[in-house]
Design brief:
Largest sheet: 7 strands, antiparallel
Helix content: 10-25%
Strand order of the largest sheet: 3-4-5-9-8-7-6
Number of helices: 3
Length: 193
């Protein structure tokens, strides 16, 4: 399987080159394996169950900037069927300084960390996933750019993910995720229609 991130530290084109970012090592482009929605780029770690999703979603004007990351986190929890009490928890939300970001067109940027108990493919087995979420708000394009780093912590032995969890070869770190957030760069605003 061809690794999507060529040499380490090189920006990888996203959405046909309209955006780019430095991806972590051992990245597999999931669109080569299955159909991905047009508003997403999805990458999986070649040896662990970690994944990264870069997604463009509609800007939620009614949600205040400081609440927007939590709003999207709960939206993801809903699609992961992790909404029952205790199934998800936000542990931190921090504002990212625009001076550290390549995507300086954003009105604000946030990084949220939380956990969700999710099942894969509607299995009964639940896995605890740490979710790191980067949010870039672009009201001038009616878009929120959402970057999600799924980092499974404990995998139920009954889950289909149990086999791959044994081979913890160089998993991605939060530093890898932060570098992706900091290097995200917009090259063509035509992407936003």
């Amino acid at each position: 399987m061809q690794s999507a991130a060529g040499s380490a530290g090189q920006p990888h084109p996203l959405f046909g080159g309209a955006l780019s970012a430095v991806l972590p090592h051992s990245t597999t482009d999931v669109s080569e394996l299955r159909e991905i929605p047009d508003n997403q780029e999805v990458f999986a770690h070649a040896h662990t169950d970690q994944s990264l999703i870069v997604e463009m979603v509609e800007y939620q004007a009614q949600v205040a900037d400081q609440d927007a990351a939590r709003y999207h986190f709960e939206d993801i929890a809903g699609s992961n069927k992790a909404l029952e009490p205790g199934a998800f928890e936000v542990t931190s939300v921090v504002s990212m300084s625009k001076s550290e970001l390549g995507l300086s067109d954003c009105s604000s940027a946030w990084m949220l960390t939380g956990t969700q108990c999710v099942s894969k493919f509607n299995e009964e087995a639940r896995n605890t996933v740490t979710l790191h979420l980067g949010l870039f708000r672009l009201p001038q394009f009616s878009t929120d750019v959402l970057i999600t780093f799924n980092d499974p912590q404990s995998i139920s032995p009954d889950s289909s993910s149990a086999a791959s969890a044994e081979t913890h070869r160089e998993p991605w770190s939060v530093q890898d995720f932060q570098r992706l957030l900091q290097t995200l760069t917009l090259h063509d605003s035509g992407l936003f229609g």
